[in-house]
Amino acid sequence: MAATSTLGSLDLAALLCSRVCHDLISPTGAIVNGLEVLEESKDDETKTFALDLIKKSARQASARLQFCRLAFGAAGSAGAEIDLGDAENVARGFIEDSRTRLTWQLPRMLLAKNRVKLLLNMLLIATQAIPRGGLLTVSPIGSGATMCFRVVASGLNARVPQAAAGLFAGTSAISIDAHAIQPYYAGLLARECGLAAAIASEGDAVVITAQ
Description:
Heat Shock Protein 90, five-stranded mixed beta sheet
């Protein structure tokens, strides 16, 4: 087996911050643009357009912040549990749009923080597997406190994201940058939970598992 990639704690923190900032740049930039248009506009139609842009972008920024707080943040003290219902809500707010839908088949229950963070990071990988949109289906493997997860991404030209399989499984030795940090971090979470992580193509879908 090839040597696996490793990062120091400072590099890991810096790259995760870069990932979060990347998710927030687009909606916050759109808010700034909308405010500039609003200040310069003289007709009601343009003002309405600018206000709609600001409202939509503010909602998007809020949804992304809430998702990142659970997926990457501390989300409570060590040993804390997170409600899977809360995880579903932030996942829908972050993922669902006119092109992508989420089918959530998990029960509402409290689960260990790192397992929920793992699940949300698996969903992020799944969204990258269907760049043109499609359906994400989340289902349990097992039950109770040791519940594991299976995420299926199906859509037009569904494909395993480049290098994600090895990074998630912990078998890749590639250099970790801001593009690679998220599947790498998801793999760290899986191993912290004592789970084996895998990504594979199955027919017209990509299947991501941690069990």
